[in-house]
Amino acid sequence: MTQTNHLRLSAIAFSLLCWTNIQAADIRDTACRTTEECRAEEAKIRGQLSRAATSRVAELQDYSYWIGRINMASTVMLAEQGIMPKSVVPRVAEGVAYAITEGVKPKGRKPSDVLQVERIIEERAGPEATLIHTGRSRQDILAKTRTASLRTAMLDVYEAILGFRQTLLQIAELHTETIVPVYTNGVQAQPISYAHYLHAFSDSFADPCIAKALVAMHQRPAFDWDI
Asked: At what angle do helices 138-173 and 114-125 cross, to 10 degrees?
C-alpha cells in the first residue's frame, strides 16, 4: 500500500514538473504575447497588397490604352451617324492615331485627362477634333476605362485560380492512397486520404462569384461600345 502511494505521488510530481511543457490544443505552437507581436503576426499572415499589374497585358492596357480605344470607337460612331462631317473624319482619325502613338512611345505625352488627350488630337486634326467628344462625358469615360482595366485583371486572377486548382488536382491524383490525419480544434480527429484533403482546398477555390462578376461586367452599360 505504501509503495502504491509512493508511486502515485511520484507520478503527480513528475506531471507537475512537466506541466510547463504541456500546451492546450491549438493551431499555433507559440501564441503572441503582446499587442505588437499579434499585429506583426497578423500582418505576416495577411501579406501585402500589391499595386503591380496582374499581367503584361494588364500593364499595357492602362488608362491611356483604353482612352485610345474609346476615341477610335467614338470617331467611327460619329462618322456612321453623320454627326462628324465626312471631310473631317480622316483628319480626326489621324489625330487619334497620333495621340495613341504619343502615349506608347518612350517619354511620350500620356495625359490622365481625356480633354488633354483631345488637345493632342487637335495638333493633327485641327479644332474640329473637339467633335470627338460629342455625346459623351469624362465621367462615363472614366467609368469605362476602370471597368475595362478591372475586367482584364479579373480575367488574370480567374486564370491563375484555374491553374492553381489544376495543380492541386494533379497532386491529388498521386495521393489517393496516402493517409493523413485531419484535425478538429487542433486535435487529431480521423484519417483521410491526402487526395481528399487537396480536393477540399480545390473546391474552396471553385466559388462562382468571380465568374458571375465577369458576366455582370460584360452586361454593364460601360460596354455598350465595342472598345
From this structure: 110
CA–CA gap between residue 130 and residue 8 (Å, rounded): 96
Q: Is pTM beyond 0.90 here?
A: no
Query: How does DSSP classify residue 62?
Result: S
Question: Hey, how many other C-beta atoms are within 10 angstroms of the C-beta on 78?
Answer: 21
Mean per-residue pLDDT of the chain: 80
Question: In the structure grid, which three cell numbers stand for residue 167, read together?
Answer: 495543380
d(CA 80, CA 137): 20
Q: Note the pLDDT tens digit of each residue in 11-69.
A: 444 444 443 444 433 444 456 778 888 778 777 766 666 667 788 888 888 888 999 99
Q: How far apart are CA 140 and CA 144, in angstroms?
A: 6
- What share of the chain in percent tops pLDDT 90? 31
Distance of CA 223 to the CA centre of its chain: 20
Half-sphere exposure of 36 (CA within 13 A, CB side): 0
- In the chain, which ranges are continuous DSSP H helix? 2-18, 35-46, 56-60, 63-80, 89-104, 114-125, 138-173, 194-204, 209-219
Q: Which amino acid is at 16?
A: L
170 Cβ partners below 8 Å, 6+ apart? none
Query: What is the rounded CA–CA span in Å between residue 30 and residue 19?
Result: 16
Domain regions of the chain by residue span? 56-136, 141-223
pLDDT of residue 11: 44
